[in-house]
Design goal:
This protein is α/β, with parallel strands linked by helices and about 400 residues long. It has helices at about 20-30, 70-75, 90-100, 115-120, 120-130, 155-160, 180-205, 215-220, 225-230, 265-275, 290-295, 295-310, 310-320, 330-335, 340-345, 390-395, 400-410; strands spanning about 15, 35-40, 55, 60, 70, 80-85, 105-110, 135-140, 205-210, 250-255, 255-260, 325-330, 345-350, 360-365. α7 (about 180-205) crosses α8 and α10 (about 265-275) packs across α13. The model has no long low-confidence stretch (mean pLDDT about 95).
């Protein structure tokens, strides 16, 4: 039942109880790193029938054929083995406890307390295997939040303060376009799981890894001293530029936009000479990085006037020659097609497991390149319950009659 991946986590077996995005993204990456992922789905499936779809006729917003697959499911569940289990069935908790000893890690992202109520929480897992590593991803941590509120990406972006760090001072709150909380929190879950695996290797003990979406995103936001800078006269919301590093941000070009990152006095000297404006080097407003912070708006206006009259390619060529970091602002589609990113497997082309590449579709790979243990995410997801006989039969030793009864009763 191995996934054929020779990544660094080869030999680690993970039981995946996750739903939606944050949890499945964690197990997608763990599988890409070589772990064997066995995913529990409801007998009717989970997310396979959500639009948009990929099928024999390409992509569509309606399910045209029985074997069309929800693109979200295809993106998030590649390389995972599928078994079915109705966790609300009276026998589900018992089957879960029989499964646990065969796994190194359990991961779930239910609302706080749900897994325990279903009989698949840390306490049940630890009874079945004392050194189990059990990871919970939740909105607010296992302590919960007032009212036990559910956490969606937008809720966490709002509560973490992130929505108030983008845009200009008078703008409405700005939601980051990608599901920032859902995609960043899993990275901390992976760090926690790998750390716990290492601890178990040296100390022989398992533990509960508790990761909060609010905590993860607030910690990222706290990496910038926004309030302190505001108290010192630098606005928190500065649009597309970073005043304390000015000139540093997005500037308009004749045919698009360009990012210029030019912090430091030596780099500033190179920039103004490349612009053909060497006198700016001696302008007292811009003579040092400290002075430029106080006059960032003036400097940004001067730089924008220079970039606005030139094409992106010309700006980048001039600044590259001068040794100044710059780049075009690309669309997601342009970025996904970058040959370097594709060659490194950081973004991959996706295909329907039966019909192949019926539409141009990209998804995340593993953005880590190992010299000895290559990481790789399998290109397709499995059919619903594809491993039921292997897991319930071969692994747990349930006979065909027992499996048939469980199917009839809606347990699996």
């Amino acid at each position: 039942m191995q996934n054929g991946n020779s990544g660094p986590l080869q030999g680690v077996r993970i039981l995946d109880l996750t739903r939606a995005l944050a949890g499945p993204f964690a197990t997608l990456l763990l599988g890409g790193l070589g772990a064997e992922i066995v995913r529990i789905e409801e007998p009717k499936g989970d997310g396979r029938e959500n639009a948009p779809f990929l099928g024999r006729d390409g992509a569509s917003l309606r399910r045209l054929h029985d074997d069309d697959i929800g693109i979200g499911h295809l993106i998030r569940h590649r390389g995972k083995q599928s078994i079915t289990l109705n966790l609300k069935h009276p026998e589900a908790a018992g089957l879960f406890e029989k499964l646990v000893p065969h796994f190194d890690v359990i991961i779930e992202n239910y609302t706080r307390g749900t897994a325990e109520r279903l009989g698949v929480g840390y306490s049940a897992a630890r009874r079945a295997r004392d050194d189990i590593i059990y990871c919970s991803i939740s909105g607010f941590g296992q302590e919960g939040a007032p009212g036990g509120g559910k956490a969606m990406d937008g809720i966490i972006q709002a509560m973490s303060g992130v929505m108030m760090t983008s845009g200009l001072p008078d703008d409405a709150p700005v939601r980051i376009g990608v599901p920032f909380a859902d995609l960043n929190t899993p990275l901390f879950a992976i760090i926690g799981i790998v750390s716990a695996l290492y601890r178990r290797q040296i100390a022989g003990e398992g533990q509960h890894v508790d990761v909060s979406m609010l905590g993860a995103l607030t910690a990222l936001q706290a990496s910038e001293p926004f309030k302190l800078l505001e108290d010192l006269g630098v606005p928190m919301r500065t649009g597309s530029t970073v005043p304390r590093l000015t000139p540093f941000g997005v500037y308009p070009a004749a045919d698009g936009d360009v990012v210029i990152c030019c912090s430091g006095d030596r780099n500033f000297k190179k920039l103004v000479h490349a612009m053909g404006a060497p006198a700016l080097e001696h302008d007292p407003r811009f003579a040092t990085q400290v002075e430029r912070i106080h006059h960032y708006a003036d400097l940004d206006a001067i730089l924008a006037a220079w970039t606005r009259g030139r094409a992106v390619a010309e700006i980048n060529a001039v600044l590259e020659e001068a040794g100044i970091a710059s780049a075009p602002v690309r669309s997601p589609d342009e970025a996904n097609r970058d040959p370097r990113v594709l060659a490194r497997g950081e973004v991959v082309r996706l295909a329907h497991p039966i019909h192949g590449e019926t539409a141009e579709l990209f998804g995340p790979g593993v953005p880590i390149v190992f010299s000895r243990t290559p990481a790789r995410i399998a290109p397709a997801s499995e059919a619903l319950g594809a491993q039921n006989d292997a897991i319930y039969g071969t692994m747990l030793g349930l006979g065909e009659d027992d499996r048939a009864r469980l199917r009839r009763e809606g347990a699996i």
